[in-house]
Amino acid sequence: MALKRRGLRGVELVISDDHQGLKKAIMEIIPEACWQRCYVHFMRNALDHLPRKADDDCLRELRWLYDRKGLEEARQEPRVWLKKWGDRYPKLCEWVEENIEETFTFYRWPEKQYKHIRSTNMLERINEEIKRRTYVIRIFPNEDSCLRLVRALLVEINEDWIEQHRYLNMELLKEHYKRKIHEMDNAA
């Protein structure tokens, strides 16, 4: 709620791991947003359902499911994968069948955005950079000095995204929303 009081609005997609408390909080605080399970975390969780000496091809082929062009194609592919690996890894296949749909939310957005919004990699990179920069200093004189460093780093990253390379092309999203509104108007 504090985020909303400070002005958070317009959230349409939240990407996270499968932490149940986090998912519940997202649904309570920003129910209008879609939730996407990070596919990288999904792949890591898949390892919990495989024997140690599992075939690398199994997970490689599972990862390929995220390179599809659209939701319908992505929904078709797991059936083939499940049929191929079901006898060999039944525990994994059962788990994938129950959970994979949570990783397909990103297919609702423009295809050129898929790579950027199917995982939490963007946030993970920022966290690693914060960790790297704060580790150099190790001991801060006070909390404010740490916050100043982190804020300065985040401003620098934001400026880089705006000036050098745009991580998410907002023009693509604007066009996407125009098409959605047009489709809804035509359906009505």
Description:
- With 188 residues, the chain is mostly helical.
- The chain folds into 2 domains: 2-109, no CATH class; 121-187, no CATH class.
- The chain contains 10 helices and 2 strands.
- The protein has a two-stranded parallel ribbon.
- Helix 8 (121-137) crosses helix 9.
- The radius of gyration is 20 Å and the shape is globular.
- The model has no long low-confidence stretch (mean pLDDT 88).
Summarize the model shown:
Helix content is 62%, strand content 4%. The protein is mainly alpha-helical and 188 residues long.
Number of domains: 2
Rounded Rg:
20 Å
Mean pLDDT: 88
Structural class call reads: mainly alpha
Form type: globular
Q: Helix share of residues?
A: 55-70%
Q: Count every beta strand, where a strand is a DSSP E run of 2 or more residues.
A: 2
List the keywords.
188 residues, mainly alpha, two-stranded parallel sheet, 4% strand
Q: What secondary-structure arrangement, pairings included, does this model have?
A:
Blueprint lengths: L1 H4 L7 E4 L3 H10 L4 E4 L1 H8 L9 H9 L6 H15 L4 H10 L14 H4 L3 H17 L5 H21 L6 H18 L1
Parallel strand pairs: 1-2
Helix pairs in contact: 8-9
